[in-house]
Amino acid sequence: MNSDNATSGYPGSSDPQAVASADPAPARLTVGIVSAGRVGSALGAALERAGHVVFGVAAISDASVRRARTRLPDSRILPIEEVAARSELLLLAVPDTELPGLVRGLAETGVVRAGTIVAHTSGANGIGVLAPLAALSALPLAIHPAMTFTGHDEDVLRLGNACFGITAADEIGYAIAQSLVIEMGGEPVRVAEQNRTLYHAALAHGSNHLVTVIVDALAALRVALEGPGLLGQQVVDDQPNGLAERLLAPLASAALDNALRRGPSALTGPVARNDADAVAAHLGALATVDAHLAAGYRALSLRTAERAGADSAVIELLKGR
């Protein structure tokens, strides 16, 4: 952050006392974003709604350029070096695999000014990946929205219900990250540097694998529903939002809600009831659709059996013994 904001009451002040007495309406920041992907453009739009000025974005692909012009129409599309050099808050919203190289490149060119707030949106990384820029007196932050982004209008709206995993080097950094997340409408959650990988693994397990389970279940349902339907009923096909989705949606939504509100006691089904015959029948039926789908069912059922303390007969069946 430059000297204009150093005494403005924003929690980025180098005076810890200023952090404690920060103005609830802090000074606006000049924001640059690398790059205008789904995450960067959504966070940029949220920051602009909070009154910050996104002056420029780095956008290379045609999709990123279109997204920048749509979501951030007042921002200029600029080279990465220019975005970095002019930013008070530099938001690095690139894929995890690209982040270390980008940081090293910015550090080697020396374009990031001392005092610049540099925040990345990677879930797997803490502030360690920003060490080359921190060595040049940048203020490193990890600000990860625990949300999936589709590139559509709902992305910005969903930030209002999202938690953000934040990691900083000190309490001043945490105060800045907390303020920024609250301004974007999210809920900040502190994640220790050494726990970032575990944090990211848990989120991936609970969200990415959920998609796989649902998609697999829908594939099996479509086969189960093949044939003549009821009069006036939609024909079963492989398009989204069809009959299989309507059949599964209320059940899956209720199961997710029950798991979040009631924990392990929400578990139902044949494994929890120790119905080994039903589980065996399921495995046989699913194998006729897709052997990989059946293998996924077996693996998840085994984990379910372990959680539920199922009988040895169910455990042995699922282990293939």
Short account of what is shown:
With 321 residues, the protein is an alpha/beta fold.
Query: Which secondary-structure class do the elements indicate?
Result: alpha/beta
Helices, by number, come to 14
Which strands sit side by side, in order, in the main sheet?
Answer: 3-2-1-4-5-6-7-8
Describe the global form: elongated
Number of strand segments: 8
Reported for the largest beta sheet, the result is: 8 strands, mixed
Task: Describe this entry's structure for a reader.
50% of the residues lie in helices and 12% in strands. By secondary structure, the chain is of the alpha/beta class. Helix 3 (38-49) links the parallel strand 1 (30-34) and strand 2 (53-58). The radius of gyration is 24 Å and the shape is elongated. The protein starts with a helix and ends with a helix. Strands 3-2-1-4-5-6-7-8 form an 8-stranded mixed beta sheet, sandwiched between helices. Residues 1-25 have low confidence and may be disordered. It has 14 helices and 8 strands.
List the main descriptive attributes of the protein structure presented here.
single chain, about 325 residues, alpha/beta
Topology of this protein?
Layout: H1 3-6, H2 16-20, E1 30-34, H3 38-49, E2 53-58, H4 62-71, E3 76-77, H5 80-86, E4 89-92, H6 99-109, E5 117-120, H7 131-134, E6 139-145, H8 154-158, E7 163-168, H9 171-183, E8 187-190, H10 196-224, H11 243-262, H12 276-289, H13 291-308, H14 312-318
Parallel strand pairs: 1-2, 1-4, 2-3, 4-5, 5-6, 7-8
Antiparallel strand pairs: 6-7
Helix pairs in contact: 3-4, 10-11, 12-13
